[in-house]
From TrEMBL:
GO biological process per UniProt: amino acid biosynthetic process; branched-chain amino acid biosynthetic process
Cofactor(s) recorded in Swiss-Prot or TrEMBL: pyridoxal 5'-phosphate
Highest classification ranks of the organism: Eukaryota, Viridiplantae, Streptophyta, Embryophyta, Tracheophyta
Catalytic activity: L-leucine + 2-oxoglutarate = 4-methyl-2-oxopentanoate + L-glutamate; L-isoleucine + 2-oxoglutarate = (S)-3-methyl-2-oxopentanoate + L-glutamate; L-valine + 2-oxoglutarate = 3-methyl-2-oxobutanoate + L-glutamate
Keyword 4Fe-4S annotated: no
SUPFAM superfamilies given in the database record: D-aminoacid aminotransferase-like PLP-dependent enzymes
Keywords: Amino-acid biosynthesis, Aminotransferase, Branched-chain amino acid biosynthesis, Pyridoxal phosphate, Transferase
Domain of life: Eukaryota
UniProt name for this protein: Branched-chain-amino-acid aminotransferase
EC number(s) on file: 2.6.1.42
KW Transferase (keyword) present: yes
Species annotation: Quillaja saponaria (Soap bark tree)
Modified residues (N6-(pyridoxal phosphate)lysine): 236
């Protein structure tokens, strides 16, 4: 079993050795790539400094901070409420009216996904259609116009290829892609914006938390709520995220990794962490709070549920009382940015509860399978991976 304390790079190298010598191993349970490489359209002529295979980056020191890349994708909706043909342009500032809907009424959505570099140099996207579908659902909730699923996925491909030299070498991270949908048209009274802009920018990243791959220590927040019933907690709107900063910063100043929120009605049930979903494991049973309107339906969350089921675990989406933390064997978080992150402890009402981490854990098993599929080391029989040249 691979040790959880290994770095992402050493894990990748270990998994590469496993996949080349142990074809019958459990981590090779997924077979057959379903997608084909795609070509980039409307690609600008590269400048002289773009000819190198890799950008001048210290890949070994990569964290999760913004590192502007060469290009971004941008398009606007036309008068007939359809997005026009987008284009790749140089990364830079965008111009907005002071009365833009996104600035005045927070009419904005964002997504997050990653591109991984294979040993052969090709790039892999992971379930990009799911991000597109979630953006469309969010746009409907926020009275916005969204690109089609095909437009969304094609835009991701173009952005990834345009910034290919910023995609880390295999095992050293990924190219994070951030699609944004904003109300860019001017509006004074409270109403939907008359124009929308869809754009994607990119940044190379590695570990999200400063702990790297070390176990997280979470703090259960009881003063502030992340979301309320019949609100926008299940939507990836920009207005969901600034409200968590106060509680998050307070927890981090006290030495915690992040905040775990409870439901706003009873304050008895787990919901999610500031930027990721939560799972608990007891024996062969893996449970996660059901998406009842206040919890974001994470794509990594959905994937881990499927992988865990395929590995023979009993999977439950249900109300998870905070009191069940006392009896849990393991706790872990999932998300595009965090991947599958083990939780070493949770502090609730001044009581610290510790959980199993490291080797021979469910978290490690699921993490290994997920990363293997995402990076092309484990074959994918589910059609999750999209390979582009």
């Amino acid at each position: 079993m691979i040790q959880r304390s290994l770095t992402y790079r050493s894990f990748y190298q270990t998994l590469l050795r496993i996949s080349s010598t142990a074809s019958s191993s459990k981590v090779r349970a997924y077979h057959g790539f379903a997608s084909q490489p795609s070509s980039l359209q409307q690609m600008p002529e590269p400048s002289a400094y773009c000819d190198a295979e890799y950008a001048d980056v210290d890949w070994d020191s990569l964290g999760f901070g913004l590192m502007p890349t060469d290009y971004m994708y941008i398009t606007k909706c036309s008068e007939d409420n359809n997005f026009g043909q987008g284009q790749i342009s140089r990364y830079g500032n965008i111009e907005l009216s002071p009365s833009a809907g996104v600035l005045n009424y927070a009419q904005g959505l964002f997504e997050g996904t990653k591109a991984y570099r294979k040993e052969n140099g090709h790039l892999l996207l992971f379930r990009p259609d799911q991000n597109a579908i979630r953006m469309k659902m969010g746009a409907e909730r926020m009275c916005m116009i969204s690109p089609s699923v095909d437009q969304f996925v094609d835009a991701l491909k173009q952005t990834a290829l345009a910034n290919k030299r910023w995609t880390p070498p295999p095992g050293k991270g990924a190219l994070y892609l951030r699609p944004l949908l904003i109300g860019s048209g001017p509006v004074l009274g409270l109403a939907p914006a008359p124009e929308y802009t869809f754009l994607i920018y990119a940044s190379p990243v590695c570990n999200y938390f400063k702990e790297g791959s070390a176990p997280l220590n979470l703090y259960v927040e009881e003063e502030f709520d992340r979301a309320s019933l019949r609100g926008t907690g299940s939507t990836k709107t920009i207005s969901n995220y600034a409200p968590v900063l106060k509680a998050q910063l307070r927890a981090k100043n006290r030495g915690f990794s992040d905040v775990l929120y409870l439901d706003s009605v009873t304050k008895n049930n787990l919901e999610e962490v500031s930027s990721c979903n939560i799972f608990i494991a007891k024996g062969n049973v893996i449970s996660t709070p059901a998406t009842n309107g206040t919890i974001l339906a994470g794509i990594t969350r959905k994937t881990i549920l499927e992988i865990a089921h395929d590995h023979g675990y009993q999977v439950e989406e249900r109300i998870v009382p905070v009191d069940e933390l006392v009896d849990a064997d393991e706790v872990f978080c999932t998300g595009t940015a965090v991947g599958v992150a083990p939780v070493g402890s949770i502090t609730y009402r001044d009581r610290r509860i510790d959980f199993k981490t490291g080797s021979d854990t469910i978290c490690q098993e699921l993490y290994s399978s997920l990363v293997g599929i995402q990076t092309g080391l484990i074959e994918d029989k589910k059609g999750w991976v999209v390979e582009i040249a």
